[in-house]
Specification:
By secondary structure, the protein is an alpha+beta fold. It has 5 domains: 38 residues; 62 residues, Trypsin Inhibitor V, Chain A (2-Layer Sandwich); 63 residues, Trypsin Inhibitor V, Chain A; 62 residues, Trypsin Inhibitor V, Chain A, CATH 3.30.10; 67 residues, Immunoglobulin-like, CATH 2.60.40.2560. The protein has 4 helices and 21 strands. The strands form 8 sheets. It has a 4-stranded antiparallel beta sheet, with no helix packed on it. Strand 20 and strand 21 form a beta hairpin. The longest helix is centred in the first third of the chain and has 37 residues. The chain is elongated. The N and C termini lie far apart (103 Å). The mean pLDDT is 83.
Length: 320
């Protein structure tokens, strides 16, 4: 009998605890629902097309929180603006609701590769690899590039463009026929060479000097017209040369070495130097894997950089 009485008391204790727990749970729910329902009802505003900062300003007085739920590319909506929202505009929610949004990353852009100096077929393949399309192809005579090589491109290399944009190119038609005179590329060459050519062709040369240049006296820093431009009869040629005194010792030169990376095929290597006078091509040619290219350039001081392009892709950049 004592054992039965003990078991009954134990069950009564469990039942009492269960009853108390049930009452506590119900009271807790009533309290939570009371708090929730005590919050004001707000109407979700339309945030589409607004910057995130403006959306936060609009939601703050409504006591509605904002959470970024993702990002997508979209050409029609500026970067940082809201594309979609959940709940949608006009939905009634209580204060404290978290509104989820998807933010625009703007139009998907890519960088235009360097196709100047490449055969047209290679240039088109490189554009496709970079999610771009070959656009209008025109032809012009060139002293600088062999027939079939890309002379110029638009947009320029390394510029940011939208994916699937067209890149228009001008392809070399080779050497000009008799009667057409093209402007040679005289940059970084001596004034005497340009003067000899101009006298033989019957053109006058106007020379200006840059006394702050670090190149030796007479080195051509800039020219007008540009290389490969068609010259009209009697057209004046303008050259800017280094005005450094002849008696001053020549500036030091720097040796540059580039080693072509290992691979199974030859590569088109293009090396340029960029300084205060613009861009100057130092080398452009096809080289086998592992080959070394040694160049010597004048020391132009701080700010000059060398860029190396391999099959039209910038692979190295260093200060000179």
């Amino acid at each position: 009998m004592k054992r039965d009485r003990g078991e009954i008391q134990l069950w009564e204790a469990f039942l009492s605890l269960g009853t108390l727990a049930a009452f506590a749970f119900i009271a807790f729910r009533w309290g939570i629902e009371g708090i929730v329902h005590a919050r004001k009802v707000q109407i979700v505003p339309d945030l589409k097309g607004k910057p995130v900062s403006a959306a936060l300003d609009a939601l703050a007085p409504l006591n509605i929180a904002l959470k970024k739920d993702g990002e997508e590319f979209n050409n029609a909506v500026p970067i940082g603006a809201i594309l979609r929202q959940n709940p949608p505009p006009g939905t009634k929610v209580r204060e404290g609701k978290v509104l989820k949004v998807v933010v625009s990353q703007g139009g998907e852009t890519v960088f235009a590769p360097v196709v100047v100096g490449l055969p047209l077929r290679n240039a088109e393949m490189l554009l496709r690899q970079n999610q771009l399309v070959l656009g209008e192809v025109s032809e012009a005579y060139s002293l600088k590039y062999d027939k079939g090589m890309v002379v110029t491109q638009d947009p320029k290399s390394e510029s940011s463009v939208e994916r699937n944009s067209q890149v228009n190119v001008v392809v070399s038609g080779g050497q000009p026929p008799n009667g057409i005179v093209l402007m040679p590329d005289f940059q970084r060459k001596d004034l005497s060479e340009a003067s000899t050519w101009a006298n033989a062709q019957g053109y006058q040369v106007a020379v200006s000097k840059d006394f702050g240049a670090l190149f030796p006296y007479g080195v051509i820093l800039a020219q007008e017209p540009a290389a490969d431009a068609v010259l009209a009869p009697g057209q004046k040629i303008k050259l800017t040369i280094s005005g450094r005194t002849k008696t001053a010792p020549g500036g030091p030169s720097k040796s540059i070495r580039y080693e072509v990376s290992q691979g199974s095929a030859d590569s088109t290597v293009r090396i340029v130097v960029v300084d205060q006078y613009g861009e100057r091509e130092l080398f452009n040619g096809v080289r086998p894997p592992g080959s070394k290219i040694d160049l010597s350039v004048p020391d132009t001081g701080s700010g000059a950089r060398m860029k190396v392009f391999l099959n039209g892709i910038l692979v190295e950049e260093r200060d000179l």
